[in-house]
Design a protein that fits this description.
With 171 residues, this protein is mostly helical. It is built from 7 helices and 2 strands. Strands 1-2 form a two-stranded antiparallel sheet. Helix 2 runs parallel beside helix 4. The longest helix has 31 residues.
Length: 171
């Protein structure tokens, strides 16, 4: 008979030092600032949408990659001001990135109309209501917008979190 040797391998998960876990997770969690993330993300969305619209009006060309830039700017702003590690910060970044894209498109359309019709931009903006906004967005919508909006939302989500250090295992 053949002699078969059985090798037993034991694996135990590394133990986390509780004080290091506190330093790695609980301390950063205590530093989170959701209000600042929401307000700062909104300001970044508004500013970014305005810049996107101004570039579109100036060049008479809508650049889809500007949506990705909006996601980047919003996400980094939410991360910087919010210092978040929880999922809600990613949601804030994603929602503001999408809002910035929609607002950027709307402002761009209004800006182009303002130039083409020689009507002050504020006059056009003051005449907007939900029905008109819906019609403008529907007329100017392109399926490729979904791709750019999706990337912007992804970037807004992904970049809204602070990076944590890995907890050190102890033996």
């Amino acid at each position: 008979t053949e002699h078969q040797e059985t090798i037993k391998i034991e694996f135990s998960p590394p133990q986390i030092n509780p004080s290091h876990l506190h330093h790695t997770v609980e301390e950063p969690r205590a530093q989170q600032r959701l209000f600042q993330a929401v307000v700062g993300g909104g300001a970044a969305a508004l500013l970014g949408a305005s810049v996107w619209a101004a570039i579109t009006v100036a060049t008479q060309f809508q650049i889809g990659w500007m949506a990705v830039a909006l996601g980047l700017v919003v996400g980094l702003t939410v991360r910087s001001l919010g210092k978040g590690i929880d999922k809600i910060f990613g949601i804030v970044g994603s929602v503001w990135a999408l809002t910035a894209c929609g607002l950027g498109n709307l402002l761009a359309v209004c800006g182009v109309l303002s130039v083409e019709e020689s009507v002050p931009l504020l006059t056009i903006l003051s005449a907007l209501n939900l029905d008109i906004i819906g019609q403008l967005m529907a007329v100017t919508f392109s399926p490729i917008d979904l791709l750019f909006y999706g990337i912007a939302m992804y970037e807004g989500y992904r970049l809204s979190f602070r990076q944590l250090e890995d907890p050190v295992a102890t033996d």
